[in-house]
Amino acid sequence: MLRPVFLFKILLLSLVINFIFILYLLIRNANQQLFISRNDVYQERSQDYAFRGFNPVSNGIKLIPMPAFVRTEYSKFVITDQFRLVSNEKSSKYLTLALKRYSTYISTLTKLSIKVEQTSSPNLENRLTIYCSSKNCKSDNYPELNEDESYILNVTETDSSLSAITLTGIVRGLSTFVQLIERDKSSGTVFIPCVNIVDRPRFSWRGLLLDVSRHWMPIPVIERTLNAMELSKMNVLHLHLSDDQGFRVESLVYPLLHDRKDYFSQKDIRYLVDYAAQRRIRLIPEFDIPGHTTSWFVGYPNLAAEETRYEISIRWGMLKSTMDPTKETTYTFIDKVLHEMTELFPDPYFHIGGDEVEGTQWAQSQSIQRFIQQQNLKDKYGLQAYFNRRVQTMLKKYNKIMIGWEEILDQVGEKSGIDKKAIIQSWKSRKSLTETIDKGYRGLLSTGYYLDHLSSTDFHYKNDPIPDDELWLFNKEQQSHILGGEACMWSEYVSQDTVDSRLWPRLLAIAERFWSPSFMNDTLSMYERLFRMNHLLDDLQIGLTHLSLYKSRLENLFGDSNKKKDLLHPLIILADACEPCGFEPRAQSQKYNALVPLTTFIDALQAVSESIWKLENSPINYNVLHGVFQKWSLNHIRLNSLFDDPNIGKSKQMWGQDIEQLSKNLAQVGRIGLRVLDYGSKRTQHQDKNNSMNSWPVLTWIQYHSQQLDQLENQVLEVRLAAVRPVRRLLNSIKIFI
């Protein structure tokens, strides 16, 4: 039994800690303002661990990204029909729009009519009061790299307040407030848990690259992507605007440059820049040069190293067509294009691509080889470095800082002559990022964040721009040169109809990796919060379609509309048990190009199956598993009439993948699952007592079924039978009893 003196000391220590914390909050909220310096919350990795005692995951808060600091109370703030968003300051246009936007979100979630007020009655308690008296909140400024995004959100039983010193901080705090809203299932009461949150991002560059060139992405796609990015606290949308398949921005100077049909007008670009800025997201353009430039040569073939007739490419990869960096006319052309395009994008950073320069046209050109010798450039790498220097000089003239893929430093290193202000984006290896920082440049990490490859969500989540085991590689200044990272959505196998399901919800895991402290790495918690947020994004009606149109896209796979009624449900069961494979399997099939519609079975699938994840990670419940496995084992019988169609050939072409084999495989997985459950409850290895399998050693029986599951998982090209995973987990658990 603990002594009274010892208990008194513990109580006294607890009171002191709480007093210090309350004093900290009072100081921070003095004069209804907030100032969080970079060192107050956390700046260095070593400071991250100061918050381990206040781990929000253990507090049951379901936010993603998880804030830096959360303190919870055992009480609730109930939202009633009297709730108001109140700003005590004169609002700028952007702040007014933000409050209106979030009042709409809160109204949508609560089914209440939420209004915004400039001032409120002193007696009004049911409110969220916004405090931001700095000049930043009174002007419609464009968001900047390294701006203060911190905020304090305080929710009590009777009141709530949000404080920040920038408009961006207010918007980040509002996105947290919306995520906190819950509904009591029994009473229907809408509430928010009482919390105090002190938050700011870990990295200042938290981006998404969206390729709008290979497959065109119109304005509604960009809008809904920006909406979801705002709620996820992402702050950079990097648009890949030109490639071999199209130049996607209107050029008035060179009107033959942009695509004739699918492109953004200059008015569109100005609209999107403003739309992003309202959500405190920077819009970074990329025009890829000197490779990936076939679209430039369609109207202006004299730019190419090999002057011939060019057409928009319908295939992708590293093509031979490349600009001629030895002609002055090339630089005159580029200079005029850059002048025009830099005026459309206010951000000081401008991406020139620079990746995958194939080099054959340069090698086969006598004039280019002669130029390399005369300029003492040695090889194609030296020639590209020469080209990059010329382009960087042009960008400086237009007050822009160059960004390029890691190849702009390839083979030339410090002799590249590229100004140290340039940012290098690493996509092929982590080693590239380390070398970039060693050479004194600032860097972004995209290695490990290629969403189009459809890797597992936890693979992206565990990929850190500065992992703990690499901290020793960098001093304090070098760590600050790692600005953050960008997830990449290349669109070879993604269309405007499928991009939402390829981005969400997996991008949320990357958003947390870029925002939250490094010790927030509980994968189980991440998935739970990610799926909750996925449904919240759908509930908020921000335009995302991957959940709302899931069933209708599966319906489109029926050639015979009469079969939809009876067969849609078993097809959904099959689809829920599957996940699409990524870039490599589709590329290996060699059946896709820019003209092939992406409307097959796997294009309708979610990138990650929520139902399978829950089966795989929830506590083992034999009754639940038996019901699911039984359903799978019988599902092929229900779907069988789909495959008896006399026009099956036409249907298979529409499906794209072998759905019939998938259906058979799911039934087999279900039967294996039932067999494993029988062993767990009855210790029988086959329900037929006369089956020889009952005489097998248990280890042999396990290995046999494990091999079967491995085959079934990836037997059908381009599709992963995710249903295998919970059965494999159950099978592996048997080993404990051997």
Automatic annotation (TrEMBL):
Stretches assigned to the Beta-hexosaminidase eukaryotic type N-terminal domain: 64-180
A Pfam family matched in the record:
Glyco_hydro_20
Task: Write down the top EC class of this protein.
Answer: hydrolase
Under the GO molecular function aspect, what terms does this record hold? beta-N-acetylhexosaminidase activity
Any keyword Glycoprotein? yes
**Catalytic site residues?**
E356 (proton donor)
Asked if the keyword Secreted belongs to this entry, the reply reads no
Q: Where are the bilayer-spanning segments? A: 6-27
List residues of the Glycoside hydrolase family 20 catalytic domain.
203-517
Q: Which controlled-vocabulary keywords does the entry list?
A: Glycoprotein, Glycosidase, Hydrolase, Membrane, Transmembrane, Transmembrane helix
The record's listing under InterPro entries reads: Beta_hexosaminidase_sua/sub, GH, Glyco_hydro_20_cat, Hex-like_dom2, HEX_eukaryotic_N
| Swiss-Prot/TrEMBL catalytic activity | Hydrolysis of terminal non-reducing N-acetyl-D-hexosamine residues in N-acetyl-beta-D-hexosaminides
For this entry, list what GO says about its biological process: carbohydrate metabolic process; ganglioside catabolic process; glycosaminoglycan metabolic process
- Entry GO CC: lysosome; membrane
Q: What is its EC number?
A: 3.2.1.52
Q: Which family does it belong to?
A: Belongs to the glycosyl hydrolase 20 family.
- Name of this protein: beta-N-acetylhexosaminidase
What's the source species for this entry?
Answer: Adineta ricciae
Q: What is the phylogenetic placement of the source species in the record?
A: Eukaryota, Metazoa, Spiralia, Gnathifera, Rotifera
